[in-house]
């Protein structure tokens, strides 16, 4: 016991959370971190500033080669790893950039998960192995210009024409859209909301790139335009109807965000800590001033609490006991607190905090999007409120 008391504290793991991880989990984390350090970190500030990733297809293949696409799915070339493994990977990816984690999250937890969970065997065989390797990219078409938090209000329609379906509509804020080979598209039919697997080279399908973003700039964000897109009857998911399908996919993605947002927070906190030790004012490092230490201590506390919550939810997911309202708890808390950590870290860096020479302002801007997508603060607040009271306040 005396040895543990005398040990030098590790600023990166003050609470000793690593003790709760298995050897395999730490190895997964290390392998993702190594890839990020080699393939992403040296270039990501430039990608963000220019608003594009120079060779995103090559990066996708690197991510696929490590097994990151659909890593928590089994079969069809997927790695079949645990929810905690996936969460740790999301954290490391977002420590590099939220846009990179979004690429992996949309590919694996939305497009691939939808096909894996609801698709036919033909869908799975056609798409999942290529998507797992990064040879094919997918996107997920649910959100519309006038239907975000209320997806039931979508105006995209699919109608029968002989044995085919014809889809008309628009989707908005679609990650990966302009580079995707396949889109999972949700549309109203005469039989409720149904999902379709749509190759993006289908006549009438286009995906204009959304520009002028100040957040998630190292990410492809697009509009999907479906103008008389004709697909065969077999393109439809055969069983799932209503919002149960797309919302279950969103729950998968939200789980990754619970972890991923902490990566941005960890990166910003560590940057602020190092900066405060090197930056001197009034004859000593600013880390020696009480107000700076208070900021560092408060940020560390919130990061630790978020990590413990994420790990707890991951263990529940692996145990098959995780509920959607618990995912909302995690998304609501961890993104909100991670954004506050980034904002506070920015103040420690002073004027340097707005420079892309440091990752803090990039993480801060990115988290403004993460705060909104996969369910806004307001929506997750109401989910938690309903779980507490048993009363719905959505309408």
Automatic annotation (TrEMBL):
Domain of life: Bacteria
Gene Ontology BP terms: fatty acid beta-oxidation using acyl-CoA dehydrogenase; fatty-acyl-CoA biosynthetic process
EC class: oxidoreductase
Ranges where the Acyl-CoA dehydrogenase/oxidase N-terminal domain occurs: 24-135
Catalytically driven reaction(s): glutaryl-CoA + oxidized [electron-transfer flavoprotein] + 2 H(+) = (2E)-butenoyl-CoA + reduced [electron-transfer flavoprotein] + CO2
Stretches assigned to the Acyl-CoA dehydrogenase/oxidase C-terminal domain: 241-388
EC number: 1.3.8.6
The protein's required cofactors: FAD
InterPro entries in the record: Acyl-CoA_DH_CS, Acyl-CoA_Oxase/DH_mid-dom, Acyl-CoA_Oxase/DH_mid-dom_sf, AcylCo_DH-like_C, AcylCo_DH/oxidase_C, AcylCoA_DH/ox_N, AcylCoA_DH/ox_N_sf, AcylCoA_DH/oxidase_NM_dom_sf
Boundaries of every Acyl-CoA oxidase/dehydrogenase middle domain copy: 139-229
Keywords assigned by UniProt, alphabetized: FAD, Flavoprotein, Oxidoreductase, Transit peptide
Gene3D superfamilies: Acyl-CoA dehydrogenase/oxidase, N-terminal domain (1.10.540.10), Butyryl-CoA Dehydrogenase, subunit A, domain 2 (2.40.110.10), Butyryl-CoA Dehydrogenase, subunit A, domain 3 (1.20.140.10)
Sequence similarity: Belongs to the acyl-CoA dehydrogenase family.
Record's protein name: glutaryl-CoA dehydrogenase (ETF)
Taxonomic placement: Bacteria, Bacillati, Actinomycetota, Actinomycetes, Nakamurellales
